[in-house]
């Protein structure tokens, strides 16, 4: 008796499918930014790793029932980056490097929509790729110097059909949830905006003919900053006196004194002026308000009158925190 044995062999290509996992994020840092720029200009930051990494896919188009939800939850009561004195810098998360896809805090955001994952190529190829995130600060924050930071809890919830078979049958679906954290930081540095008009003694035939110049230096420094303002000795100091110089190398001695008094305004130790010594609005900097330091400048009358000419000097004003 004979029996016919039929054999069937199907050689199928190996299935390459998406393997996604929740991993540790890379921190997002705005870097070090002056308090003035934090207040006036939007700052940008990013991270190449938002906590989800995937490798490979059979398809790049996502079905309507696929989702890649991410929820970014701040600490209770937090509204942004918190600094050492309680000041806060607001910022916004984005799902790509434009402002078209803002991510609301504490609400699920689906990265599967708007073609974001397709554009990233996250589900194609064999090289592991992570979801990037983009951030922009909100301008208008008048804050003290220091480290500003917020740690967001990131919850990923994905469901993804990694391959479509005959008859549009899903060959396999990955369902994954996981939690990680994202640290966002910005370091604010001290800064000042300074207005200091030039000093002009005008003209006179003898040293005794020059009038006293009364003027001021206008300083606006970082909120909460204590600082000192100094004036160096100029380019031609001699015997403790500042001097202007002519093109013929002749000199005219003068000096700059604090407020309306006779104490010389200098550059070291007590010769400097503290923010608490401002004539108007003394104390720590306010970030937006001005502090004014008055001075008077005089040509010394106990010197011989030098030859006629134009006399010049340059004095450097510096602020130290």
TrEMBL record:
Keyword Signal (UniProt): yes
Signal peptide interval: 1-18
Coiled-coil intervals, chain numbering: none
Keywords: Signal
Record-annotated Spore coat protein U/FanG domain positions: 9-154, 179-316
Annotated protein name in UniProt: Spore coat protein U/FanG domain-containing protein
Source species of the chain: Pseudomonas vranovensis
């Amino acid at each position: 008796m004979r029996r016919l044995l039929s054999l069937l062999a199907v050689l199928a290509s190996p299935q390459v499918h998406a393997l996604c996992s929740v991993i540790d994020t890379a921190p997002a840092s705005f870097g070090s930014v002056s308090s003035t720029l934090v207040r006036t200009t939007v700052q940008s930051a990013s991270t190449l790793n938002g906590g989800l990494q995937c490798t490979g896919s059979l398809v790049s188009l996502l079905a309507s029932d696929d989702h890649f939800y991410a929820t970014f939850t701040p600490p209770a009561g937090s509204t942004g980056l918190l600094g050492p004195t309680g000041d806060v810098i607001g910022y916004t998360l984005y799902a790509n490097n434009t402002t078209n896809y803002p991510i609301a805090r504490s609400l699920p955001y689906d990265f599967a929509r708007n073609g974001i994952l397709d554009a990233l190529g996250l589900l194609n190829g064999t090289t592991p790729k992570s979801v990037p995130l983009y951030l922009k600060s909100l301008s208008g924050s008048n804050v003290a110097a220091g480290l500003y930071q917020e740690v967001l809890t990131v919850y990923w919830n994905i469901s993804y059909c990694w391959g479509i078979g005959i008859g549009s049958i899903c060959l396999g679906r990955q369902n994954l949830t996981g939690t990680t954290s994202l640290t966002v930081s910005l370091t604010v540095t001290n800064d000042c905006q300074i207005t200091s008009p030039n000093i002009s003694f005008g003209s006179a035939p003898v040293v005794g003919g020059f009038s006293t110049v009364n003027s001021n230096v206008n300083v606006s420094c970082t909120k909460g900053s204590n600082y000192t303002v100094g004036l160096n000795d100029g380019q031609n100091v001699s015997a403790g006196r500042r001097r202007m110089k002519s093109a013929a190398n002749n000199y005219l001695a003068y000096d700059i004194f604090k407020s309306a008094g006779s104490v010389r305004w200098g550059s070291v130790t007590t010769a400097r002026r503290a923010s608490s010594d401002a004539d108007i609005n003394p104390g720590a900097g306010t970030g937006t308000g001005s502090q004014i330091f008055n001075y008077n400048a005089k040509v010394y009358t106990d010197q011989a009158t030098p030859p006629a000419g134009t006399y010049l000097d340059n004095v450097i004003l510096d602020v130290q925190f």
